[in-house]
Amino acid sequence: MQKQGSCSHFSKYKLESIGNLIKTNFTFCDNAKKLQCESDVEKWLCIECGFFGCSRNSNNQCSLKHNQQTNHPLSISNNSFAIWCYVCDNDLETIIEETDNKGQKEKIIKFLDSMKNLLFKKIKQNKPTQTIQQFQQVQQQQQQPETLNQDIKQSITQPLNYTPKQVFGLRNLGNTCFFNSVMQCLNATESLNQFYLDHKKFNFSSYNNNVDNEDDDDWTTVETNKQIKQQVRPKSSKLSINQIYQNFLLNSRKSKGLVDPADLFKSIQAVQGRFRSMAQQDASELLRCLLDALSTGEENTHIGRINKTKTNGKPKRTIVENIFGSYLCNYLECLDCGFVSRTFDFCLDYTVQIRKPKGLINQRFQEEYSEITSEELQDVIVPYLHNSILVQKNNNPPKIQQQKQCNLSVIDCLDAFTEYEELNQKNNYFKCEQCAKQGKKSVRALRKFFFYDLPQVATIILKRFQQKSAGRFEKVTEQVEIPETIYLEDYTILKGEPSQTIEEIQAQKFKYQLYGVVVHQGTMTGGHYVSYVKHKENNQDHWFYFSDSNFKEVSLKQALSNQAYILFYERV
């Protein structure tokens, strides 16, 4: 393999000759008739000969097999416009970040931009009067019996022939694709936008008197009683990060397709120093830092706490906490004496490993559901309990037999995250309070996580970057099937009224619908973040692909057939 950051395989190509090679209609793989290739998966165009084939994430992997047969080095995606070098085993945008040769970097950037523009123009030339999605729908309708055409026309969402005001690209400020991809998903979070877009009712411009300091307009961090309290303002600015975010949302809807997010990104840099470096960062860390900063900023403004309900433990006070916040119940059961411990910890997302469950069962439970007794909760701090009855599902939810395109699904990852795990000599002994009174230092135990007080927006982070031996981190590239709809009641401690039976409480349903996907392309040493986001227009759902300043409408299948990193589900 050639050294990273030193690619020169693009230099032999001329744009004129590449343009003459492009004969495809950008819809079907060149092997479609022979291999019955899928029409809605990402495809790659060979820059050497013009072959148009399915991606390596598809069933047939036509583009990858074409490279293995021909050794043609470069292909460009019709979806993300990324260019992959098979010899260097990397994409050109990552190579640009890694090379120290300024002259070579400029050449790659020029080639990359020229190829993107060329491919975009070719797509428009081949479909001057209709979008790619419209062409695909016409083809699908022609393959159906004539009697079904009317039903199909009614069920298919027609692509838009205009750009909605809430759809726009974001300028890359220098390795800020991680930030742009997250912002596109937050921009589509309707439950958050209903507060921030209503600037007359929710004005974040003024601070409380006990926070504002007119003599010092620099952002500061003050430590009091070992707790960090932040005045969330960018350096040399009297605007809170909340007002900057509110201005970003309001002004973006007046833009003409491209927005400069520099002010918002600078405000995040002021709050979190790790983002002051212009190196590529982790999108999930950015999301947590931004939500924490917005939540802290809300408490520092006159809007303050929208939820004033008193409770034990960490409450949900702010807009952000009420939308994204929930609790993880850590259940621990001593296998020696039977003592049970429960703790409830506040969280803004669910971070799960990419794996299938092992299927360990807790043998002491005879019933599928059981009430958590008041004796078990005697010394437990349970948020928002009040006079409610709590019911838990005792063992892992049963597997639903369904046809999967991948060996692993998000449901598998949730099952694995919430299954019983034995703590033993090989896996962290448990320090039981009761056994400690008898002189035992550590014992075997069962541990399980439950969700509690579910959020309006469930953010699921798939652990794509995992630590291996010797402290090294590796990217998990396994494809995970993404369901458009998930139900979380099987993973949740359910609340009910004292007058309700267990059967009535367990009948509750918590349905969530996917609306945002952050995808990391590339390797552990570098890569590129893109996002797929659902926007509602004219009471219909439309999915869009975003890569910094570039965006286009795509199908639901395209949005679901990627290596997802962060998933945004909204409760319906």
Automatic annotation (TrEMBL):
<keyword id="KW-0788">Thiol protease</keyword>
<dbReference type="InterPro" id="IPR050164">
    <property type="entry name" value="Peptidase_C19"/>
</dbReference>
<feature type="domain" description="USP">
    <location>
        <begin position="168"/>
        <end position="572"/>
    </location>
</feature>
<dbReference type="GO" id="GO:0006508">
    <property type="term" value="P:proteolysis"/>
</dbReference>
<dbReference type="InterPro" id="IPR018200">
    <property type="entry name" value="USP_CS"/>
</dbReference>
<dbReference type="GO" id="GO:0016579">
    <property type="term" value="P:protein deubiquitination"/>
</dbReference>
<dbReference type="GO" id="GO:0005829">
    <property type="term" value="C:cytosol"/>
</dbReference>
<dbReference type="InterPro" id="IPR001607">
    <property type="entry name" value="Znf_UBP"/>
</dbReference>
<dbReference type="InterPro" id="IPR028889">
    <property type="entry name" value="USP"/>
</dbReference>
<dbReference type="Pfam" id="PF02148">
    <property type="entry name" value="zf-UBP"/>
</dbReference>
<dbReference type="InterPro" id="IPR001394">
    <property type="entry name" value="Peptidase_C19_UCH"/>
</dbReference>
<dbReference type="Pfam" id="PF00443">
    <property type="entry name" value="UCH"/>
</dbReference>
<keyword id="KW-0479">Metal-binding</keyword>
<dbReference type="GO" id="GO:0005634">
    <property type="term" value="C:nucleus"/>
</dbReference>
<comment type="similarity">
    <text>Belongs to the peptidase C19 family.</text>
</comment>
<dbReference type="GO" id="GO:0004843">
    <property type="term" value="F:cysteine-type deubiquitinase activity"/>
</dbReference>
<keyword id="KW-0645">Protease</keyword>
<keyword id="KW-0378">Hydrolase</keyword>
<keyword id="KW-0863">Zinc-finger</keyword>
<feature type="domain" description="UBP-type">
    <location>
        <begin position="5"/>
        <end position="111"/>
    </location>
</feature>
<dbReference type="GO" id="GO:0008270">
    <property type="term" value="F:zinc ion binding"/>
</dbReference>
<keyword id="KW-0862">Zinc</keyword>
<keyword id="KW-0833">Ubl conjugation pathway</keyword>
<protein>
    <recommendedName>
        <fullName>Ubiquitin carboxyl-terminal hydrolase</fullName>
        <ecNumber>3.4.19.12</ecNumber>
    </recommendedName>
</protein>
